[in-house]
Write a structure and sequence with these properties.
Layout: H1 5-27, E1 32-35, E2 38-41, H2 58-67, H3 72-83, H4 86-91, H5 107-124, H6 128-134, H7 138-144, H8 151-167, H9 172-184, H10 187-195, H11 200-203, H12 211-218, H13 225-229, H14 236-248, H15 252-268, H16 272-283, H17 302-315, E3 326-329, E4 334-336, E5 344-350, H18 355-359, H19 361-370, E6 376-382, H20 387-396, E7 402-405, H21 411-415, E8 423-427, E9 433-436, H22 440-451
Parallel strand pairs: 5-6, 6-7
Antiparallel strand pairs: 1-2, 3-4, 3-7, 5-8, 8-9
Length: 454
């Protein structure tokens, strides 16, 4: 049989078809159709099927890369390059690339940043803060005013410290920043500075930018807070904060730092029942025994202070009979307050080193002279450490009335809950407390009323 060219063509075609089907059976891969540049697997194919085998050559890998779809960012860039107009890109639906999320700094990094800010502030203020701490005399303090940082410098640094607070109000560097701000900015202004931080209200509710709320929520037990409390302005908001912090904190220093001013407010507002409950709770808190309330060595603790105030409210209130107390006379014998029954008495607890006490002496001399024919007496009780200090003072200063000496932190001062000088008690002829802590014309009027000289 003679093979023609037509026969050869048909045989070649058959071989090609057989080879194609054999290759399909060996590969077992689904047939794919490409639309544009993205591969779309035909319906019915398994989703787990792989288009490129591990034995694919470098050439096929390159081909796969070229056939992969472009990312939105690359597409947008290409369109901008071709069209030359970002507006057209936006119209075509180009996606805006989101900024990467900010990495939260560690507490150590934030503490280092706070320290750097303080150092820079110091340099810009010519060492004002350091010199202010070291100043010992009024003259040195006055001379430092020329180096005080300007309002512009304070405001610029205040914003930087506020940014640290807002970024994470929970850690100790945030508290340090708040304490720094309190030195140069009024507490009532700190919340305004915090609210002015860019994006502050987006990151947290406005109520969380309140410095009082931050301190209560995150720093109620940090002992550093005690320094902040001493600088707080008087007012209803401050008193409410004192009360909330006193109830929440378990730090003895903070309980003392809030309890003492809160008690003073309650007494001034004549809320005596609340004041009594407050100092009773403090007197029962044994941890307050280790918290001093004065810088004097061996001075009273916060618990001692509370016990004295509780005694003051229960036994030394106006209308109560003064407890029987005694101290050493100048002659060395013991004198008792009951020895003065039948006289109107001004009991003056003082010390020779106390400026306001000494300032009262001229007026007391006038009272003694004016009322020399009346059943009236002034009794001054010195709390100087040494009796000799009192006797030396009396040799150079005329004080012609009765004097006792009790020393520091004595039973006399504890019995009368003495925590300031001078402490004045005005007693009627029966020894009942009628007035406390008055002087000048007010003292004159009180004594005259008790003597019937009005």
């Amino acid at each position: 049989m003679r093979l023609t060219r037509t026969h050869l063509s048909l045989a070649t075609l058959c071989l090609l078809l057989v080879g194609f089907f054999i290759a399909q059976d060996l590969n077992g891969a689904p047939k794919a159709v490409r639309l544009g540049s993205a591969p779309i697997v035909e319906a019915g194919a398994a989703e787990s099927t792989t288009n490129v085998e591990t034995s694919t050559t470098a050439k096929s890998k390159t081909s796969a890369k070229l056939s992969a779809p472009l990312s939105p960012a690359v597409s947008a860039k290409s369109k901008v390059a071709k069209l030359g107009s970002p507006k057209l890109v936006a119209k075509l639906g180009a996606a805006k690339t989101a900024a990467p999320p900010a990495v939260k700094k560690s507490t150590a990094d934030r503490a280092a940043e706070y320290k750097r800010l303080v150092e820079y502030f110091e340099m810009s203020s010519l060492g004002y803060v350091d010199l202010l701490i070291r100043a010992k005399t009024p003259e040195e303090l006055e001379a430092l005013q020329a180096r005080a940082p300007s309002g512009r410098v304070v405001r610029s640094y205040a914003r930087l410290f506020a940014q640290l607070v807002v970024s994470d109000p929970t850690d100790e560097p945030a508290l340090d920043c708040l304490l720094f701000l309190s030195k140069y900015v009024g507490v009532e202004e700190i919340d305004e500075i915090l609210l002015a931080v860019p994006g502050a209200t987006e990151d947290m509710p406005t109520t969380q930018l309140d410095p009082y709320a931050m301190l209560l929520e995150h720093h109620a037990n940090n002992a550093k807070l005690a320094d902040f409390l001493r600088k707080m302005p008087a007012g209803e908001s401050t008193n409410a904060f004192y009360k909330a912090l006193f109830e929440k904190t378990r730090n003895p220093k903070i309980r003392a730092a809030t309890g003492i001013p809160l008690y003073n407010y309650l007494v001034t507002a004549e809320k005596l029942e609340e004041a009594e409950q407050l100092v009773f709770e403090m007197s029962e808190d044994r941890y307050l025994d280790g918290v001093p309330v004065s810088k004097r060595p061996n001075g009273p603790s916060a618990q001692d202070w509370a016990e004295g105030k509780l005694r003051d409210l229960r036994l030394l209130a106006i209308g109560k009979t003064l407890p029987e107390v005694s101290a050493e006379t100048l002659e060395g014998s013991m004198g008792s307050i009951s020895d003065y029954r039948g006289k109107v008495v001004v009991l003056d607890v003082w010390a020779t080193w106390c400026g306001p006490c000494v300032a009262m002496v001229p007026h007391e001399r006038e009272m003694v002279e004016r009322l020399k024919d009346e059943p009236f007496a002034i009794l001054s009780v010195s709390c100087d450490a040494d009796k000799e200090t009192l006797t030396d003072f009396l040799e150079t200063t005329s004080m012609p009335w009765d004097h006792w000496w009790c020393g520091q932190d004595s039973e006399f001062t504890k019995s009368l809950a003495i925590d300031k000088y001078p402490s004045i008690f005005v007693l009627d002829k029966e020894g009942v407390i009628r007035f406390k802590d008055i002087k000048g014309e007010e003292l004159d009027a009180a004594v005259d009323s008790l003597l019937g000289l009005e």
